Amino acid sequence: MCGISRVVALGDRTRRLNDEDKKKIEGRLSNSLEQIRHRGPDSTGTWISQDGRVALGHVRLDINDLSPSGCQPLHSTDNTVHAVVNGEIYDYDKLRTEMEEKIKYRFQGTSDSELVLALYKYYGLSFLSQIRGEFSICLFDSERELFIAVRDRYGIKPLFWTIQNGDLLVAAEIKAFLPLGWKPEWDVKSIVGGDFQIGNPTIFKNVQKQYWDSRYPDKHIKDPRTEEEMIQGFREHLIDAIKARLRADVKVGVSLSGGIDSSVVAGVVNHLLREGHQIGSESENERLSCFGIAFDEDSGFDESSTANRTADFLGVKFYRKQMNEEELAKCFADATWHDEQPNPDLNFIGTYALSELFREKGFRVNINGQGADEILGGYNIFLPDFLREPDTTLGVPTMSEDERRSELRKSEEILNNVYQGKLDLSGSSVARRQLNNTLTPAQMTAAFPPLPFKQEFLPRNNAVDPQLTYAESINGIMLEEVRSKWHPLHTAQYVFSKAHLQNLLLSNLGDRGEMAHSIEGRTPFLDHHLTEYANNLPPSMKIRRDKNRRWVEKYVLREAAKPFITEEIYKKRKHPYSAPVEFPVGGPMQRLLRDLVTEENIANLGFLSPHGVASMVDKAFETRETPLFRLVICLAQWVVLQKRFGVAMAQSEAERLETGTLKVGSNVMLG
Fold it and tell me: What is the DSSP string of 147-179?
């Protein structure tokens, strides 16, 4: 079932459960599930092992199999394997038939989630390689006394874990830990070093995430396929990924912006409906419903007019949510609470509001275009790394070496101007040498406004290097492939996907904003069959110059999508999804930020210097400096998180020594 969640506690194996202990566990588990009830408002389920060592909890959002047999936790027919599943598993009919034939498994309902039990019974731990979809799973094998917690390949569905008083706690959102004895503290080391944006750490101490790795081809091996074969292969994989995501027992819609990614998804879905395929619970002749966000027209960030023209071209129903300044300010705090981490752009509020529109219109599933930029080199920051080395895999270079070097210099200079000269263009840093000399990590780092950290929380010599954190978050075997075998564009895509895609975009602009309003997001561009195909395409199939010598991103997608999109969308260049950064003085946004970004509130965080922060708000609105505005909204989000979670004020090593919370002589990591 999609949109569900879980909390797991794995305790002392010698403990034996009596009725009173069971009631205590049930009470804590129920309170924990209430924190994330928005993820599954339809029903709640719990299961506790006889010895009390394992407790599973689940809140259900009805998507497939709306009958009671779809409720969770799930139990195998012999009652030895127990699981909770968050998300959607595709190829259901094929896998169900396979399990019925191979092990005579008796399914109790028609829920896709029940496949997990049968697949585990047959394949053991390798069952994960059989699963296609967006998911996170907690499974307990009582016979083997084995507990596993896993998530999908790209982290589309969240999974967090921590250990409290000897218990392992696992949940879809961090706030679910609050009733289970967890006392939130800032992970200042992770915040200062930017680790929470990159790998397993979060902004909270001792709360972790989980990840998977992807691979790219050896740049020294030529690709024998023709260009047309690759375009056709990509088109087939994309259509198959979208077709798999149409199935549901509830209403399914498509998010539609003015860009190519969502337009392709809408176009392909519309094509499939005309071929006779059904989408969700809609009747066979029902038109496709699309949903979009509209910012104020004079903001420079509104693409809704393009989306309108695409909707007219496709002949679909199109619902729009108008996001003016007042709406952005009204949703700011709640959207931040659901995201559980700061974002230097107000676009996360747009996602949050769009999901509310889906819910208001009676829909429960949103098929979206997330992930295309990451798998196909869609951001302008990828261009220098595409040009860093020749692409020899196609056999014939697409440009001369002199031309490539000239274009590389120009692309780096343009981006360095965007980032106000802050990029390391020398290629001499340790991090860049480890990461195939790519520039993308430096650009990712420069995109976040530097916070005013207190001096006592900074490492010695202020040696904070997020780029090095990117490099050191990769295991040694993969790092050697990155350095010696991959084209720099693929290295850049890999780093971006492991960092911003998983830690920011799929969270703040994906699951968290969607599930805040009980909407399941489905991401066909991150279907692992499609991404593995895309990863193995030559760099020159992702970025290419057109006949006017302009650089075109996502080349293979544009060519594959021609039958499904307008000429306007085909020719349109990338416009990143972003929210307005300029608002009138004295308006709702400035009043909100004035209330949040005060010296007292910043001081209560503990790790930031409060001096002068209040004046930053007024200055940001008066001067309209974008970097300053992004800093201010980040500060405001830290304040919201501190207040909503009740996070203790961070203390430096010296402060902990003074208060007696740190023993002299212990090994300490600051924060």
Answer: EEEEE-TT-SS--EEEEETTEEEEESSGGGGGG
